[in-house]
Design goal:
Structural class: alpha/beta
Oligomer: single chain
Keywords: ATP-binding, Nucleotide-binding, Transport
Pfam family, one: ABC_tran
Number of strands: 12
Radius of gyration: 19 Å
GO molecular function, one term: ATP binding
Number of helices: 10
InterPro entries: AAA+_ATPase, ABC_transp_ATP-bind, ABC_transporter-like_ATP-bd, ABC_transporter-like_CS, P-loop_NTPase
Order of helices and strands: HHEEEHEEEEEHHHEHEHEEHH
Strand content: 15-25%
Largest sheet: 6 strands, mixed
Protein name: ABC transporter ATP-binding protein
Bound molecules: adenosine-5'-triphosphate
Distance between the termini: 50 Å
CATH topology of the largest domain: Rossmann fold
Shape: globular
CATH class of the largest domain: Alpha Beta
Amino acid sequence: MSATATAPDPQAAAPLLRVEDLTVELGNGAAARRVLKGVSFDIPRGTTLALVGESGSGKTTLARTLVGVHRPSSGRILVDDAPLRTSRGRAGAATVQMIPQDPYSSFDPRRTVAQSLAEALDPIRARVKPVRTRIAELLGQVSLDPDTMDRYPHEFSGGQRQRLAIARALAPRPRFVIADEITSALDLTTQAEILNLLADLRRRLSLTMLFISHDLAVVRHVSDTVAVLLHGDLVELGPTGATFAAPNHPYTAQLLASVPGDPRFHLDDEPATV
Ligand SMILES: Nc1ncnc2c1ncn2[C@@H]1O[C@H](COP(=O)(O)OP(=O)(O)OP(=O)(O)O)[C@@H](O)[C@H]1O
């Protein structure tokens, strides 16, 4: 056995994303409130962390802080051990991309798909011609026909638009992708298709992901680790299977108690319920 085969691989060991004691305050003056309270977690490279918690617990605030929309009041965000760089309040596109929740409002209806993707590829020039091949490749990655690139968003179904949103997020070849409730606007069959696409992309592109969802059946299907937010505090963090089997925090147990078997997914470790 060679020495290199046994040497630890620091790249594999280091988390892609590290959030350290992150506190975020929103609002001004007397209305200011701490929405995230000293939150810490790592996401190892190539894995998916699911973030769950009831409405108002701070999930979207965390996502928006990671893309640079909100500034931390204290704490640190590290990508590959370096502080997350933001430009004019936005995280660098090549570092972090977010897939939006609503595929209907996230595209400019006056632009063709190719124009929107060209802008994602090169925000300054946004010219389609030099990037047609890359646009075709992106559409192929999300199983859409590259010949549809000159169509407008309204010519696509909700599920197809969510595929377009995923293609747009992948355009700058981000190292880290945030999916914030990306299936909540879709019917159950389309939800399953999008989740399977995401799982496939994750494998093929070795994506590191933060997957925000209130749907614990989905979370169980897609994530390696799970984190639970309660009023801005991270109350649970652990491997998804172990956490679902034996949660540490009573709030997690309460959330899990309300999850019935889900007929949408055929999980490897359990028979599908119908
Ligand atoms: N710009 C803001 N100024 C002040 N408070 C805000 C602002 N944005 C969000 N909040 C508050 O922060 C809290 C957390 O909101 P956030 O949207 O992060 O929760 P969430 O867990 O994503 O909820 P949901 O599941 O409903 O999307 C809420 O009480 C919300 O009212």
